[in-house]
Design goal:
- The chain has about 400 residues and is mainly beta.
- It folds into three domains: about 130 residues, no CATH class; about 90 residues, Immunoglobulin-like, CATH 2.60.40; about 160 residues, Collagenase (Catalytic Domain) (3-Layer(aba) Sandwich), CATH 3.40.390.
- It is built from four helices and 26 strands.
- The strands form six sheets. Strands 1, 2, 3, 4, 7, 8, 10 and 11 form an eight-stranded antiparallel beta sheet that branches. Strands 13-19-18-15-16 form a five-stranded mixed beta sheet, with no helix packed on it.
- A hairpin with a 2-residue loop joins strand 15 and strand 16.
- The longest helix has 16 residues.
- The chain is globular, with a radius of gyration of 26 Å.
- The relative contact order is 0.11.
Length: about 400
């Protein structure tokens, strides 16, 4: 792993190597989360005298898109590398592996990469270590990807930017192209947090620029048009599978699968996101639930939808329909005395699994309550949100 530990600015790049003949000749062991334990009897001079070479090459000043190549040579016993800060673990050949860093703090940090042997346990023998000192003048730890003024969640309604800098003094701005829309603030410190509520600022794509010590870093952000984020979306340009489990389907929900299929087709037509039905499992699974998910029965929500993932993308979506719901007995995408049919419920919950949250705009499908005059399917707001998250028509 690449371990970030403080080192003097301008420190030279160098390598540390080891000569394995069997596992007992390893420098030590390391766990996947970066805990290194030297082998008994080894010291710094032993590391310098070894034969497996680990070289880390790349720019000394880290930029947003800087890539570092890790090259390991010397022993067939080395199965790959473990490096921290991404973090990730590569157990494959070849040993020249590009690494894009994202979370080193501002200032000078030491990049450390371990060449490791094969192991099926949570501890790997280490046969070589490579170092590189990197300077990162400005590091943006967090910037809100989508600011949603109409979100039901107050935390989504403001822009938040957190920054660490190598030099004292930092200024943050919101820009549209090259034009400054708003100065978010200036702080005489090396750490700063900026927040801003957009109010009636025009929806669209923007960027946050952070400047310190003559270095400017630019990160994209955006203001949502009456849609709100909920969870990270699924990976772009992938066909998402879905399945429907009809077990426990109430008699009044006859032909529910027909309306579910129509709902996915409507989303595809509006956004280009591709879906395919499978018999079971699936990226998004739709099923029925009773008291466990809807303890208040008929008076509870008619459905629930959401997703789980790794924090970057969603990997699994789930939609539950309430077995006690009366709404599910109104088929299709029309109206019943002015109230939408169950198609609106289906698309609303699937949109949750795709990453959209509730909004305060009553004319949007993602408003949490449906009634007379409510949308029967996707509105321009959900289409804008799904296009912003997936941009599927460009795939």
């Amino acid at each position: 792993m690449v371990v970030a530990s403080m080192a003097p600015a301008g420190a030279a790049e160098h390598t540390v190597t080891a000569a394995p003949s069997d596992e007992s000749d390893a420098l030590g062991t390391i766990t996947p989360n970066g805990v290194f334990k030297p082998a008994s009897g080894y010291g710094a001079s032993d590391y310098e005298a070894a034969a497996v070479k680990v070289t880390v090459s790349g720019p000394s000043t880290m930029t947003k898109n800087a890539t570092y190549n890790v090259k390991v040579t010397g022993s067939s016993k080395v199965c790959g590398i473990i490096e921290q800060s991404v973090p990730r673990q590569d157990m494959k050949r070849p040993y020249t592996i590009p690494v894009t860093l994202s979370d080193l703090k501002a200032g000078s940090s030491r990049l450390k990469v371990y060449a490791v042997g094969c192991s099926k346990t949570d501890s790997y023998p280490v046969y070589g270590i490579g170092y590189k000192t990197i300077s990162q003048p400005v590091h943006i730890g967090k910037v809100t990807r989508w600011v949603a003024p109409a979100s039901e969640k107050a935390s989504d309604r403001k822009l938040t930017v957190s920054v660490t800098t190598a030099k004292t003094g930092v200024t943050a701005r919101l820009v549209k192209g090259t034009k400054t829309v708003r100065t978010l603030g200036t702080r005489k410190a090396r750490k700063a947090t900026f927040t801003w509520a957009p109010g009636k600022t025009r929806p669209g794509g923007y960027a946050v620029t952070v400047t310190s010590g003559g270095t400017t870093v630019r990160v994209p952000t955006g203001i949502a048009d009456n849609w709100a984020p909920m969870n990270p979306p699924f990976a772009r340009c992938k066909t998402l599978t879905w399945s429907y489990n009809a077990a426990n389907e109430p008699a009044r929900a006859k032909n529910m699968a027909v309306d579910i299929k129509s709902g996915f087709n409507r989303i595809t037509s509006a956004t280009g996101i591709r879906f395919k039905r499978v018999a079971k499992g699936g990226t998004i699974s739709l099923t029925w639930a009773g008291k466990k998910h809807f303890p208040d029965g008929e008076t509870d929500a008619d459905g629930l939808g959401g997703s789980s993932g790794n924090g970057v993308v969603a990997t699994k979506g789930t939609v539950w329909f309430n077995t006690a719901s009366r709404w599910v007995g109104d088929p299709g995408y029309g109206r019943y005395d002015g109230v939408p049919g169950r198609g609106a419920l289906i698309v609303h919950e699937v949109a949750h699994s795709l990453g959209l949250g509730h909004v305060t705009t009553t004319s949007a499908l993602m408003y949490p309550v449906s009634g007379v005059g409510s949308p029967t399917s996707l509105t321009r707001y959900e289409i804008a949100g799904l296009n912003s998250l997936y941009n599927a028509k460009s795939c």
